[in-house]
Amino acid sequence: MPIKVQSNLPAIKVLESENIFVMPDDVALKQDIRPLKILILNLMPTKITTETQLLRLLGNSPLQVDIELLQTASHVSKNTSSNHLNTFYKTFEDVKNDTFDGLIITGAPVEQLEFEEVDYWDELCQIMEWSKTNVYSTFHICWGAQAGLYYHYGVKKHSLPEKLSGIYTHNVLDPHHELMRGFDDTFQIPHSRYTGVKLDDVRKAPSLDVLAVSEKAGVSIICSKSGRQVFVTGHAEYDRDTLANEYMRDLNRGINPQVPYNYFPNNDPTRVPPMVWRSNATLLYTNWLNYFVYQATPYDLNELEKYVQDK
After folding, report:
1. How confident is the model at residue 31, as a pLDDT?
2. Partners of 192 in the beta sheet?
3. Alpha-carbon Rg of the chain, whole angstroms?
């Protein structure tokens, strides 16, 4: 089944070239079913790239998904045109009276700042609080995961000795959990961050289950017992060349970064990285959509207030 987006969103051409089923909104209106309503709070600087990455994964399931894109009103994007944002994005003021089956909060390149120093932190807290009553399940990515763990459960982030960048192997701790169904015992996903959360700190929150960890990258996938809060500390949605682009960007800035771990063949940045995480990413997002959004969300989203969040 397709994802439904605005007819002229730039990501459509890329997705259609990859045989991802994208349905323009004028066609979807003729179908007599209720699509899943998914809101994406896109905090990444390369918003169009992130849109395409996430829509690619959300569109690879048998469910029709109605996408709304959200930006923060308290931060002006420097890397995406105002025309694109004004055309395709809403602000919290536009959606605060609506309800959604799912919410995705992306990562953001602000992890070296304290949460309270981020210029849109107050607005993000307002959105996360609103999500408790207006969204059934929220999927947090990288810094978004750290922000969500801190806001909802008081789990602090910690600085790493150096940037964690590369493709890391993870061990599944609970293969019977709905989010991990179909995963092999080990799987790989990218990470790109300067901070992380400690496993012991996460386990102090009784309503959180740790589902996957990495020997080198640490705790990776966390889910609340109700499935209404999901946290992924890496970037399963990344493209083949995303880490390469970040590496070259940092080189050009004079940061002298380490070559991303386990990424380039023979650690040679001139070679094309193999894509070894796409199937894992697809399974992760499909499981979330199926088990924690489609099967769990009430048909009438006005009934969301009856569902209690984890404490």
Report:
1. 43
2. 165
3. 18
SS3 category, 294: helix
Give the residue numbers annotated as catalytic, written as ranges. Answer: 142, 235, 237
pLDDT for the residue 90? 93
218: left (phi over 0), alpha (psi -120 to 50) or beta: left
- Three-state secondary structure call for residue 134: helix
- Over the stretch 54-108, which tens digit does the pLDDT of each residue have? 999 998 888 889 999 999 988 777 777 788 888 899 999 999 999 999 999 999 9
Q: Phi and psi for 301 in degrees, rounded to 5? A: -65, -15
Nearest CA to 166 out of 194, 191, 196 is that of: 191
- At 249-262, the pLDDT tens digits run 999 999 889 999 99
Phi/psi at 235 (nearest 5 deg)? Answer: -125, 75
| Coil, helix or strand at residue 117 | helix
Residue 253 lies in a domain: no
Residue 236's contacts (CB-CB under 8 Å, 6 or more residues apart) are 57, 189, 190, 277, 280, 281, 284, 285
Residue 112 in domain: yes
Three-state SS for 224-236 is ECCCCEEEECCCC
Considering only CA atoms, which of 175, 66, 51, 59 is closest in space to residue 106?
51
Number of domains in the chain: 1
The boundaries of the domain holding residue 43 are 3-240+278-306
114 falls within a domain:
yes
Where does the chain show beta strands of DSSP type E? Answer: 3-5, 22-24, 36-41, 65-70, 89-90, 100-105, 135-141, 158-172, 186-196, 208-214, 218-224, 229-232
Tell me the mean pLDDT in the region 217-224: 97
Cβ within 8 Å of residue 89, ≥6 positions away: 42, 69, 70, 71
- Asked if the structure places residue 311 within a domain, the reply is no
pTM for this model (two decimals)? 0.88
CATH code, 27: 3.40.50.880
